[in-house]
Amino acid sequence: MPNKYDRHISNLTKDTYALVLAGGRGSRLFELTDVRAKPAVYFGGKFRIIDFPLSNCINSGINRVGIATQYKSHSLIRHISRGWGSFKAKEFVEILPASQQTGDDWYMGTADAVYQNMEIIRSHNPKYILILSGDHVYRMDYGSLIAEHVANKADMTVCCLEVDTEEAAGSFGVMTVDPENKVVAFDEKPDQPNEMPGKPGQCLASMGNYLFDADFLFNQLLKDVVTEGSSRDFGHDIIPSIIKEHNVFAYSFKDPDSDNQPYWRDVGTLDSFWEANMELVTPDPQLDLYDTSWPIWTYQEQLPPAKFIFDNDERRGMAVDSTVSGGCIISGSTIRRSLLYSSVHAHSYSVIEESVLLHGSHVGERAKLKRVILDSKCNVPEGLVIGYDREQDIANGFRVTDKGITLVTKDMLDSYVQKNS
């Protein structure tokens, strides 16, 4: 993003506390989230999904960040403690696990996750509170958002994407705004979204990111907790209850130079996860991970460089149109249009095409993978063919999506080996 974004690193961002909601299960990723929360899912060869909103905070000058965790949070907490712990005094990333702070319940909804940590947040005395979803992949300067929030004298600002009404129907919360972008109505996942003024076929869909004046948010949370029937959720309860009597604005997430929609992905299904990773191996991906002006920070092991060995007509270690991470050994294997995470070992005569291989996996000799998501620490047996025959993959115990992407996990392979031994 060189020379594209004015970073509003000022007292506005320094007076902001960001809370990342990272407790989601991500059930549409099926077995990929059996052992980890969705924000802890790997993405892009060496990152976790949560690294993107956290990096946006740091790059925007927001250095006080809380992370609310709940579902299977061990790997997420381990990642955060290893990679996000070295900050200056009064600057931090702190983990806020569900711990029944205010009663006998765990986090009941997005608003409740904030309410249960309200006294911890209040102790940092922020003027503004930024609530972020922890399970989307994007780059965003939150300073621009805060500056517009203050200029509008808003009580709450909702980050929005401009999307086709057909795409938003049944999938997104949709804002209806006046010509000044003041929210006049909000519908949670409507079948027929309201269109934007002057933009037929387009609507403003909520990104799940919200900015509040701190005192206003605290007051609304205290009202919500005594509201009978509330589901304790921002989309279902808080936003609809405040738009008529308070200043709630929509902030459209747009490129300030081109007015185009910047990169944003909800990798919440196996197909979207595979597609978003595959985009990264194209020659000119929209998400440029090599852009040093807006780095994505993460924890990574100290690993040796990727290694490619053997170069003869019978076996040749090679990778084309692919991304191969540190610690990988491509031993006489052919890799095409694939993304390999760290410490993957592909053995001789194997062929890997259009696949995403998570860290620590091994692909045996003469195995063939195509359009496969291979979970971490898998050992693909010698000669096994995956991704070429849908019915055979299903018979072998693997999960195949409607679009023909095959998910393979360690447990699935263990069951396959036991069944065929």
TrEMBL record:
Alpha-D-glucose 1-phosphate binds at residues 107, 173, 188-189, 206. It catalyses: alpha-D-glucose 1-phosphate + ATP + H(+) = ADP-alpha-D-glucose + diphosphate. The keyword ATP-binding applies. It comes from the Bacteria. Keywords: ATP-binding, Carbohydrate metabolism, Glycogen biosynthesis, Glycogen metabolism, Nucleotide-binding, Nucleotidyltransferase, Transferase. GO terms for molecular function: ATP binding; glucose-1-phosphate adenylyltransferase activity. Pathway: Glycan biosynthesis; glycogen biosynthesis. Gene3D superfamilies: Hexapeptide repeat proteins, Spore Coat Polysaccharide Biosynthesis Protein SpsA, Chain A. Residues 18-280 form the Nucleotidyl transferase domain. Pfam families: Hexapep_GlmU, NTP_transferase. The record marks 70, 106 as: Could play a key role in the communication between the regulatory and the substrate sites. Residues 304-408 form the Glucose-1-phosphate adenylyltransferase/Bifunctional protein GlmU-like C-terminal hexapeptide domain. Its EC number is 2.7.7.27. Belongs to the bacterial/plant glucose-1-phosphate adenylyltransferase family. NCBIfam families: glgC, PRK00725.1, PRK00844.1. Homotetramer. Involved in the biosynthesis of ADP-glucose, a building block required for the elongation reactions to produce glycogen. Catalyzes the reaction between ATP and alpha-D-glucose 1-phosphate (G1P) to produce pyrophosphate and ADP-Glc. This is Glucose-1-phosphate adenylyltransferase. It comes from Alginatibacterium sediminis. The gene is glgC.
